[in-house]
Structures are given as C-alpha cells and as structure tokens.
Amino acid sequence: MKCPYCGTENLSTSKSCARCGRPLGRVTSEAGDPVKARPAFQSGPTRIMNNRPRDLNEKLTTEEVASKMKTDYKRCSMDQSTKVLDGFQTLLASLRKKDIDLNGLMEKAAKTIQQQFRIRWVAIGLKSHADDKFRYEVMAGFKNDAAEARKKQVFELSDFFEDKKYKGRMISEYTKLFLEEDRPFTEGAEVTFNRPMLMNSKRREMDDALEADYLDVNIYGINNELNGWIEMSGTIMGKLPDAPTMKAIEVIAEIIGEAVMRVQNNRYGK
C-alpha cells in the first residue's frame, strides 16, 4: 500500500507508514469527505515536504532542501549496503596520509571484513622483500593457539597458483576456494584452525561451510604481481560467503594492494 503522504510502499496489512509514521488508507479532506490517496510528489494543489502540506506557489528555502538531504543521508546510513560503503571509505581515507600505516590499515580491513560480513576468521598476509616468501601479518577471530601456529607458516608463490600442496578452485580473477574434502593444508597444519575437532564433518547443503573451508583473495601489485592475500573462512551462520560478499572483499584487497604499492615506492624507490 502506498503512503498518500510520502509515497512509500508499505505492506497491505500496515496501518501506518514505515517511513513517515502517518496512517495509511484513504485521505479525508477537511470537509470530512474521503478522497483518493495521492502520492506525495504527484502534481496537484499541494505537495508534502518535511511532513507538512505546502502550497505549490510557496518558495522552498535552501535550508529546507539541505535539511531533507541530510535527514535522508542519516537514514541511509542504517542500510547494510551503505555500511559496507562506509567501511570502504574508512580504508580509503588511510591512503590520504603521506606515511601510510600499512599494518594499521590491514588490521582495520580484517576487522571490517569480520564484522560487516559476519566472517568467522580473517587473516591477511604479505610477501617479504627480504626473501620473497609470504607470511601472515594480521589476523582476526583466531584463538591464540591457532594464531601462533599460523605465524610460523611460510608460503611460496607457487602455493597460491598451483595445486600440489593446497588444492583449490578459482572462483574469479581474485578469489580461490579451498574445500575441506580436498584437505587444502599440509600434514600437522590442523592446529592452525580454530576448531580442529570439528574437521571431517559432512557437508549437507551446497552453501554449508566446514571447519577447514577457506577462501584466498589475492592482493595484486604492478603488472599483477602477487603482493599478498586475504584469507577468510565461512560465516558465523555456518555458510560459505555469498557472491556480493566476495566482490566486496575483492575491493578491499584492491585498497590494500594500492597501500602496499605506495609503501613500496617510498621504501624501495619502485
């Protein structure tokens, strides 16, 4: 049912508008005669703005226009998709600094991914220019023993693009999926997971996430050089991340990639 005051669509069973709070149904004129509901911005003798009738000949002030846009902006910030954009803005703001705090940026990114997308655990790793090896730098959602075990792990470039040690399946240019049934970990690496006792469970639905399932999202540099990766598990609901979540985290990987390149330029003169 469309609200006759602000034009918002509501459920047919609703008695009041979800947006402006006014009663739904037929509008009664001052004379007491029922009249048909009219959308808020339909042409006619009056129009609604800021919850009060306004004559079409009355001039709008710039303060009123700005006030309405500010109110709409605040309401929009409660939407989940807008919260995701807020997370992007926070990370991008870190790139405006002359001296980028790369570790701080990655910590913000890990927490954003975990909180905004309800991911169980997140780890971000980078390549070391000292030996061209890859190691975890930042982790969120891990138990202490699992985190300590991961800090000891060292990876080669081939580990990300070949399936000899870690069998996975490319989902996109950035994201690779690793499923527990393929045992995408080396012997003894079960301790790097939070709940190794839950491993070897049965997958009952296509989108179920098992304990040892994870996804790697590549962090690229110049000429598609692999500079690092974001690793994440399933959601706290026990499901694999959906496509919009993967796309959003790929954007975060690009933001981190830009930060890495800027730090490298400053540090190594690349």
Element layout with pairings:
Elements (H helix, E strand, L loop, with lengths): L26 E2 L5 E2 L10 E4 L2 E4 L6 H15 L3 H14 L8 H15 L5 E6 L6 E7 L3 H8 L6 H4 L7 E2 L4 E4 L35 E7 L5 E7 L10 H26 L2
Antiparallel strand pairs: 1-2, 3-4, 5-6, 5-10, 7-8, 8-9, 9-10
Helix pairs in contact: 2-3, 2-6, 3-6
Structure, described:
The structure is a single chain. Residues 27-49 have low confidence and may be disordered. The radius of gyration is 26 Å and the shape is globular. Helix 3 packs antiparallel against helix 6 (243-268). The termini are far apart. The strands form 3 sheets. A 6-stranded antiparallel beta sheet has the order 6-5-10-9-8-7. It has a two-stranded antiparallel ribbon with strand order 1-2. It is of the alpha+beta class and 270 residues long. It is built from 6 helices and 10 strands. 30% of the residues lie in helices and 17% in strands. A hairpin with a 6-residue loop joins strand 5 and strand 6 (134-140).
